[in-house]
Amino acid sequence: MDCDEHEDPSDDKQIDKQLEENIQESKEESSQQKNENEASNLLEKEKHYFKEQKVIEVAKATFPNTSNQHYTKGVLFSPDGTCILSTINANGMLCYELPQDLYGKEEINDDREITLFKPVISIKSVGNIYDFCWYPFMSSYDAETCFWISSAQNEPIKMFDAFNGSFRCSYRAYDYADELEAALSLCFSPDGTCIYGGYKKSIKVFTTSVPGRDYDTINTKQPISCLAMNYYESNVLAAGSWNKTISLIDTRDYLTIDTLHGHKGGVTYLKYSSNGENLISGSRKDSNLLLWDMRNLSLPLYKFMRKVENNQKVYFDISTGGTWLASGDTRGIVHIWNLRDLNDDGFPKEIQFPLHQDSCSGVNIHPYLPILATSSGQFKFNNDGEENEFDEQEIIENSLVLWWFGNHIETSKSDAVLPLT
């Protein structure tokens, strides 16, 4: 009598498991290859940025109400590049849409008519906005991801819908007396699951999906004025403080890895490069913009010069591919450094554009188009030191402007801005 041989079911499970692992590895390799190809294409694209050494004004919004100190305090493109978010001193937040004709453009006419911006969302705020940031995976194709968070004087961290400006939820922190405490600075974790808030004596860690007053606390000895997460080394949080130092914190155990020194004033803004290798830091009343190599933190790798003569947070930004570093200054000049093209002294080459007549505190580079967003304005005093009364001869400019720095077609009526020589 013939006997049929039966395979062991456990062998089939083992084969299925191995097959799933092989498929997963293949997907990861494919995704890694795709990311490498995208990075390579982006680097090639960024080589041609500022090639013409001209910038063209393509859109503008102005805020003429100076009597109430309504000047801009920074500007941020959304991660998908469709929206521009700006804060107005003592007047809340404004959200704009990128002009439709700029999508997918490889070049424009240098006499293109300037688009006059009108906000699609306006959110009033009684107190000053301390900080704001977009959800890192914001996409206009997915309504659930379209939001930003902000912190304001005497208010909790709030989340706002980017489609209609509605209030979604809040994250509330309390001090030792159980009184509501406002966050001085904000940032998301690289995966968007956590919100980090910098406070006077601590950093609070909220879960994005759990609004309310549940949070972890990282105690600090100084106010945390700015925060930045390393998207490449996702467990490293950089925390700047008003005592001129930057702490690098491991988010797994909340221990301090290192402390960076080098600024002359309180640190106001931090930004990692997209590959996580560099950290850039700026401070108030300090003209040094420092670039740190994360592999050797003993001294800054570069010191960039920009004029900062007030207590403003003067923003800067680094392009997605890591080629270009841009910063404003209190004279209205925008500085552009090519981090991949060094001069004979081994220092990144610089271009300076006189884009504003007043302090340029906001600078942000579009994630994938050759467009630079800038904002201008600052707190004004009269000759007696009083606010709200100004010298008639003093130049006051409160504006939000978009500039094209890619290829363009020259015309006889060019409005391009040339760099300083």
Cα Rg: 24 Å
Q: Just give the CATH class.
A: Mainly Beta
Total of domains:
1
How many β strands by DSSP?
Answer: 33
Distance between the termini: 99 Å
**Chain-averaged pLDDT:** 88
Beta-strand percentage range: 35-45%
GO molecular function, one term: RNA binding
Pfam families: WD40 (PF00400)
Region (Disordered): 1-39
WD repeats: 260-296
Structure, briefly:
This is WD repeat-containing protein 79. The chain contains one helix and 33 strands.
Could you characterize what this model shows?
This protein is mainly β. The chain starts with 8 loop residues before the first helix and ends in a 12-residue tail after the last strand. It has one helix spanning 9-46; strands at residues 56-62, 72-77, 83-88, 92-97, 107-109, 115-116, 121-123, 129-134, 147-152, 157-161, 167-171, 173-174, 180-181, 185-188, 194-198, 202-207, 216-219, 224-229, 236-241, 246-250, 255-260, 267-272, 278-283, 288-293, 302-305, 316-318, 324-327, 333-342, 348-354, 360-365, 371-376, 399-404, 407-409. It has a five-stranded mixed β-sheet, with no helix packed on it. It has a four-stranded antiparallel β-sheet with strand order 2-3-4-7, with no helix packed on it. Strands 8-9-10-11 form a four-stranded antiparallel β-sheet, with no helix packed on it. The mean pLDDT is 88. It has one helix and 33 strands. Residues 11-39 have a biased composition (Basic and acidic residues). One of its GO terms (biological process) is Cajal body organization. GO terms for molecular function: RNA binding. WD repeats lie at residues 260-296.
